Amino acid sequence: MSPAPRALAVPLAVPVIVTGTAVLVAALALGGVAPAYIVSLYGKYLCYGILALAVDLVWGFGGILSLGHAAFFALGGYAMGMYLMRQIGPRGVYGDPLLPDFMVFLNWHALPWYWHGFSHFPFALVMVMLVPGLLALVFGYLAFRSRVSGVYLSIITQALTYALLLAFFRNDMGFGGNNGLTDFKDILGFNIESGRTRAALLVATGVVLSLQYVLARAVTRSRFGKVLIAVRDAESRTRFLGYRPESYKLVIWVLSAVMAGIGGALYVPQIGIINPGEFAPTNSIEAVIWVAVGGRGTLAGPILGAVLVNFAKTLLTGTLPEAWLYALGFLFVFVTLVMPKGLMGLVRMRRRDDVPGAAAAASAAKEATG
Amino acid sequence: MSAEPEGAIGAVADTLLYLDGVSVSFDGFRALNSLSLVLAPGEMRAVIGPNGAGKTTMMDVITGKTRPDTGRVVFRADTDLTKLDEPAIAQLGIGRKFQKPTVFEPHTVWDNLLLALAGDRRPGFTLRARETAEERARIESILRTIRLSDHRARRGGDLSHGQKQWLEIGMLLAQEPELLLVDEPVAGMTDAETEQTAELLREINRTRSVVVVEHDMAFVRALGVKVTVLHEGSVLSEGTIDHVSEDPRVIEVYLGR
Ligand SMILES: Nc1ncnc2c1ncn2[C@@H]1O[C@H](COP(=O)(O)OP(=O)(O)OP(=O)(O)O)[C@@H](O)[C@H]1O
Ligand SMILES: [Mg+2]
């Protein structure tokens, strides 16, 4: 009956696996045992894991089906990309000490005001969280206050990411237009191409994902999390208890957007480019599929789903690129119809049966084995 | 309450709830038709009436779910409820049990009560809240009252229909409201459960005011309180159960069918 060890044992499993595999992959590549490219490949999967966790917080626990979460991910990515652009300094093709190549190409003579400050890493880090967070705050405030929910909310989240896609395509926005931001040289003074930097970025991603998991777990298990689940299942009932569902949705929505932004910021230095394609509506939809495959409303599931689905994507697009979208669509239909609780549902089924009254026994058993 | 400011709205002495000429229409159909009703503090009132009489709509108006086209709903002689939304009215001390029992299905009986307990409702508080000994004691006591002590660890969704009804009444109690609105609490209950529910409501009424809507006449009789009969959105008859059941108009529209 000591609650502390049980409370510690379970949340450690996911962080240990995530960080452990990241360290392992990094070590294997540095030691020359595994090919170098798997480092940034696995790093990409883990960044997608961050995005999936963020989507799950709003969808799995808050009942808000966001079809635009990749927008927050991409905004975090652009903020990091702007820092990386400023690190290039005079090493660009045009050798301009101040302006990134694409600005020189556009005949710009001064850095736009919103690029100032991005040469400082701490400033960029703040922006990585602030920009997605603020956008989510304004969007969420307006949407939840006027009680937009369900399909309508999903559609306007799609519209949001689509609008950003179009905006970032424009050259005069000052974010590199179609080509986006690329040709990065170094990060915090380390060569971004070097194996050791890549290994460090992968491990950092593993650590950040682990921390976000622990945070998400604490939030969803708190009384706040219980209210959030109540809002998801019986929103109007919570109102008659005196809760304001819109404020609960807003808190989880903003938190989730910030988490996604951090994921995007880790993604860009490992992939080496950020362009408007990251705002594509299909990216957000794919993220929802990862969550559904892994298990909506569980926290480990979406991470697992993101890694496995993207692993499958890597394999399939290598051999049969035109088949991928069909496979993904089939996967979504299959999971929705046959495994509504996703992969985690299969794992759980063996641990606990849903016979009424078994819950107490199951939690006692969990206490004994946990 | 002599400290009441001069000219406060309501101005009906010794009234907890005062519905004053409330009308509601849906697409031209009058669900409530200039309905007036006065509830004294500490009173329990039974509301009966045929299907579609407007009983649930009356509760919707009191709790802020539906805004009336005309009329006032005055609480404690100084608050016009028609100006407030659901959470504000709930926090003011009006709790509601729905016709169809709605508990939070994935949560345990214990957690359902925990979320209903009176207290700070803001995310900033619930993010950091820890269950206190006082809260535990409150929940234990409510569990005893609603006879679900042995079911505390079960999911709300796994309870029987009657148990869900009780859990919802327990959640109402946890809110510590001054006024409870209870919509058809014994629908679908066995005779034994119905009897226990009547007892439970009488117990609750010792400290709180209650409005209970119910079709089950045996149950209404067992409550032994003043009865209001609604018909087509307004009051048809009011008085003791014997008085209203002998009222020829009531017999015609409701009892006699
Ligand atoms: N949101 C709504 N939109 C349209 N009509 C409604 C709405 N709510 C209620 N009504 C109508 O108003 C009338 C009164 O409904 P209400 O639910 O208040 O009746 P009730 O007395 O609770 O009946 P019951 O005993 O069946 O629960 C009914 O004719 C119903 O169809
Ligand atoms: Mg009704």
UniProtKB/TrEMBL annotation, chain A:
Subcellular location field: Cell membrane
One Pfam entry name: BPD_transp_2
Keywords: Cell membrane, Membrane, Transmembrane, Transmembrane helix
Primary location class: membrane
Residues that span the membrane, as ranges: 12-38, 67-85, 121-144, 151-169, 199-216, 250-268, 323-343
Record CDD domains: TM_PBP1_LivM_like (cd06581)
NCBIfam families for the chain: urea_trans_UrtC
PANTHER family in UniProt: HIGH-AFFINITY BRANCHED-CHAIN AMINO ACID TRANSPORT SYSTEM PERMEASE, SLR1201 PROTEIN
Membrane topology: Multi-pass membrane protein
Species of the source: Acidisphaera rubrifaciens HS-AP3
InterPro entries: ABC_transp_permease (IPR001851), ABC_transptr_urea_perm_UrtC (IPR017778), LivM-like (IPR043428)
One example GO MF annotation: branched-chain amino acid transmembrane transporter activity
Record's protein name: ABC transporter urea/amino acid/sugar permease
Cellular component GO terms, alphabetical: plasma membrane
UniProtKB/TrEMBL annotation, chain B:
Recorded superkingdom: Bacteria
InterPro entries, A to Z: AAA+_ATPase, ABC_AA/LPS_Transport, ABC_transporter-like_ATP-bd, ABC_transptr_urea_ATP-bd_UrtD, BCA_ABC_TP_C, P-loop_NTPase
GO cellular component, one term: plasma membrane
Domain ABC transporter: 17-257
Residue intervals passing through the bilayer: none
UniProtKB keywords: ATP-binding, Nucleotide-binding, Transport
PROSITE patterns in alphabetical order: ABC_TRANSPORTER_2
One MF annotation (Gene Ontology) recorded for this entry: ATP binding
Protein name according to UniProt: ABC transporter short-chain amide/branched-chain amino acid permease
